[in-house]
Amino acid sequence: MICLCAAVLLGSSGPSLLAQSPTARIVSAANAFLSTLTEQQRRRVVYAFNDEQQRARWSNFPIGMVPRGGISLKEMSAAQSSAAMALLSAALSKRGFEKVQQIMEGDERNKIAEGSRQDGKGKGGKGGDPGFGKDNYYISMLGQPSETNPWMLQFGGHHLAVNLTISGARGILTPTLTGAQPALYQADGKTVRPLGQESDKAVALLNALDQNQRKQAVLNYRVADLVLGPGADGKTIQPEGLKASNLNEKQQAMLLDLISEWAGIVHETAAAARMAELKADINDTWFAWRGSTNVTEGTNIASYYRIQGPHLVIEYAPQGLGGDPSNHIHTMYRDPTNDYGRKPNSK
Amino acid sequence: MRINPALFSFVILAFPAPSLAHRLDEYLQATTISIEKDRIAVEMRLSPGVAVAPFVLSTIDRNGDGVISAIEEADYVRQLLQDISLTLDGDVLALRLVSKTFARVEDMREGMAEIYLTFFAAVPRQDVTARQLIFENSHQKRIAAYLVNAIVPSDPDIRITAQSRNFQQSSYRLDYSQAGGESQHAWLLALAVLMAVRFGYLWWRRRERRPVSAR
Predict the structure, then answer these.
(1) Is B156 an 8 Å CB contact of chain A?
(2) Which ipTM score applies to this complex?
(3) In chain B, what are the domain boundaries?
């Protein structure tokens, strides 16, 4: 429903909106969203651009455990939440927006599962409410929407933290966290895997490696979680695994295609610029894998992998938290040199 | 650090159902190591899962009053220091605590909070360029999930050449090279002395060749 309203809102703006640059479209959508808010709500949504606390206030945890800034969809009217989703739709690619919605929809299933627990076990969060559900996602902005001055759009909740810095024509999506639990579910008679491509493309790449390449790529130690997850801003770890300079052209293309699952979440113009940057770095990019390589087609891997380059860190970390790790995934997307668009030429 | 088996069994059995989003029955201990010429920084992020948090908390909040006092924090850091070690070229380095942040007991009990600790170790200057660092962690090993990684050095003179770990990441070895050490300084000094001697000799030869009337 929200998706439909977002599409209608975007569509209703007609050809004039489509003729705009992506940044102009995002700014228009941001201003349209802000105009639906009360003064009090607007004060809660908009932070100063240099508010470092709010910038880093994101997590994989549900909002009952780690409160977010801004306002939630739950607190909005139908028109406000439609405008919020229209803004997100303008800022992200079609696939990126769909991924976000599938993550949120998955969390709705957590809400239902949590509600059906009779014994009260599994309750968590302050006051006992973990805050699952697709309306428990928050939107906030740092700075005022602008086509010239840098500002930031944040959208997140359980298993989702979109941090998009917009600086002129540039859209910098790092750091962004995506996750899924369940990572496989049924909706409208279809199987949904919000992070399915991240799993399938990684397996395809691993299977395309020869024995020697695979030996370099596969780490011989357990990786229990994200290394550079929430709170690990500004760190660059020593890369490990297989250097992509040792891949052939086809394998490099597969690696780039895998990377595009994260780099392509942002709107197409920003994604193209980012992919060009990452393609230029490909020979200095590393691929590391830990865990089983046996995967049933159409399911998710239970293995950890990391892609790291001069301007990139991607981690895919199934969570062994008592359930099926392949059905509970956290992923991280960073640019250690430019998280939050901090690089001088980004401003 | 010794674990009370009865308490450990109790907390594991008390949380049989998989919990949504919570780290469950492990104590995640993520370490990053940053190398500089004269200092090594060890940052530790400790996150007890919801099922083991009561046990971990019992080793921190010793009087069980629901508040981690400064004395209890210091005691816990001492316990931890007994379980970790850092050696460089075979010599044990003393780790000095430089910052600590303990989450609230109630947040840790929910398996969603962390302890952050930063230690510094002074690096003795030695006439070597190839160095080997070993970090070992056996803290709460029955429930631990260890991560350890090196931060890419900001000093261009330091280059990481190899890393290796055991499967659990409780033992980590890091090899690195370091230019600009004592040996390089000594080499530069020797070169400077040689050049000074050479210039002195040339000056003396030139002086000797001049006619006596010109002196």
Answers:
(1) no
(2) 0.85
(3) 5-179, 181-215
